[in-house]
Amino acid sequence: MEERIMRRPEIERVTGLSRSAIYAGMQQNRFPKPIKLGPRAVGWIESDIKAWIEAARSERIQTH
Asked: Please, what's the largest Cα pairwise distance for the chain?
């Protein structure tokens, strides 16, 4: 199965996070790191983002 690569605007739309929140989360090891696609381009593996969303959902359920 081939993994789909998501670019930042899609990540923002899917997660509801701003650009700065995404990069802050990566710096704190609380958000998946992207893969390098070229000299000035990165993308995130869709399954990593889905796993992050599911973990955030599970954490929310456990704290409420």
From this structure: 43
pLDDT digits (tens, 9 = 90+) for 5-46: 999 999 999 999 999 999 999 999 999 999 999 999 999 999
In terms of phi and psi (left: phi > 0; alpha: psi -120 to 50; beta: otherwise), the region of 16 is left
pTM: 0.86
Cβ atoms within 10 Å, residue 51: 12
Query: What residues make up the domain containing 11?
Result: 5-63
Quick one: tokens of 25?
Answer: 């989360």
- The total number of structural domains in the chain stands at 1
C-alpha–C-alpha distance, residues 26 and 32, integer Å? 6
Q: Is 26 left (phi over 0), alpha (psi -120 to 50) or beta?
A: alpha
